[in-house]
Amino acid sequence: MSGAARPVEGEPYLAVEDLTVRFPTADGLVQAVTDLSYSVELGKTLGIVGESGSGKSVSSMAVLGLHDRRSAQITGSIKVAGTEVVGLSESKLRDLRGNAVAMIFQDALAALHPFYKIGKQLVEAYLVHHPQATKREARARAVEMLDRVGIPQPDRRVDQYPHQFSGGMRQRAMIAMGLINDPSLLIADEPTTALDVTVQAQILDLLQDLQREFNSAVVLITHDLGVVAEVADDVLVMYGGRAVEYGTCKQVLTRPEMPYTWGLLSSVPDIGADTGARMIPIPGNPPSLLAPPTGCAFHPRCAHKDKVPGDLCSTTLPELLPGSEGERHVKRCHLADPDAIFAAEVLPEIAPDLVEEPR
Ligand SMILES: Nc1ncnc2c1ncn2[C@@H]1O[C@H](COP(=O)(O)OP(=O)(O)OP(=O)(O)O)[C@@H](O)[C@H]1O
Ligand code: SF4
Ligand SMILES: [Mg+2]
C-alpha cells in the first residue's frame, strides 16, 4: 500500500460524519445529502445502496472533493486517514485524488479521454503522483496494470484508443487507471451497471481480488442489493439523501428493520429465483430533494405506516437508532416491532423457503 495519506492506528481509513450537501438552484435548495455518517476500514468493503437520486454519488464525490465550491454547500466532516477533506485546498485535494483515493465511475467512456491512447492516459495518471519515474517506467507500469485487470495482450492494447476497447475492457482499463497508484481507498460508483451479467461478475471478482491484494478500503455504490450481498462487509441504505439503515451485511440483509430496505430486498430480481419468491418493485417514486416529504421521507410509499400510532410517520423524522441486531446496526423508522412484521409479512413474500413451517 502506498498513497500519501497514512492510516491512523485504531481509526477507520475513511470516516464521514454528519455530511450535508446542498445545491442552491434557481428552483430552490436541493437537499442532496443530509447528516450522513459512515466509516470504512482498510481491507473492508462498504456497499451503498438506494434508488436513483438518493445521494449516493453526491456523497461519494464529496469524499474526493469533486464538488464545485461555488455551487455546493458542504458541511460536516470527511476524514481520509485522519486528514479532513472538507475545506481542503485544491492542491492538497489533487494530491489525495488518484493517490490515496481513487474513484471508478459508472461510465468508462465519460471518464477516459476519447482522443488519447489508453496507455498515455495510464502513464499520465502514474506520472502525476510519481514525478521521479521515467516515461519508460510509467509505460511498464501501465502495461502491468492492464495485465492485472485481465486485458489480453496488454503490451499491444496499451497503444489503442478507448473506442477500440469493448465496454467491459474499457471498464477494466478504468479500474487499472484507478488502481495504478495503489490507492488505499477506492470508490466504485456503479462500476458494472452498463455491462452484461457475465462481465459484471468478472469485474466484481476482479475488484475483490485487487482489494485483497492491496488491502484497500472500498466503497461500492450500486442499485443492486444482490451485488452488495456478494461483495460487501457492511451496507448503508440511503433514501432521500439520508442513511435509513446501516450495519453489517448479515445484520441488514438477514434482519432488516426499515420498510424501505424490505422494499429493496423484495425488488432484487434473483434472490431465491427457484424458490417461489416474487420480484416486487417498490411502488411510487423517489422523493423530491427540493421539497422532501415531512416526517419520514419514505412515508408516501410505505405500506407499513398504519402500524405506527397517530400521524408520527408523516410529521416526525425518525432518528437513526440501534436495531435489535446490536449497536452497529442502526435504522431510521418509527415501527416498534419491525422484526415481527418482517418475519410475518415480508419474509414469506421474498424468501418463502426461509420461512419455517409451523409444527
Ligand atoms: N450539481 C448539482 N446541482 C443540483 N443538484 C444536484 C447536483 N448534483 C446532484 N444533484 C441532485 O442531488 C440528488 C442526488 O444525486 P446523486 O447523483 O447523488 O444520486 P444517486 O443516488 O447517485 O443516483 P443514481 O443512482 O441515479 O446515480 C439528485 O436529486 C440530483 O439531481
Ligand atoms: S417511519 Fe413510518 S413511514 Fe417511515 S419507514 Fe417506518 S413505518 Fe414506514
Ligand atoms: Mg449516482
From TrEMBL:
Q: Where in the cell is it found?
A: Cell membrane
Query: Which family does this protein fall into?
Result: Belongs to the ABC transporter superfamily.
Q: Matching CDD domains, A to Z?
A: ABC_NikE_OppD_transporters
Q: How does it sit in the membrane?
A: Peripheral membrane protein
Write down what this protein is called: ABC transporter ATP-binding protein
* Gene3D superfamilies, alphabetized: P-loop containing nucleotide triphosphate hydrolases
The yes or no answer to whether the keyword ATP-binding is present is yes
Enumerate the Pfam families for this protein.
ABC_tran, oligo_HPY
Gene Ontology cellular-component annotations: plasma membrane
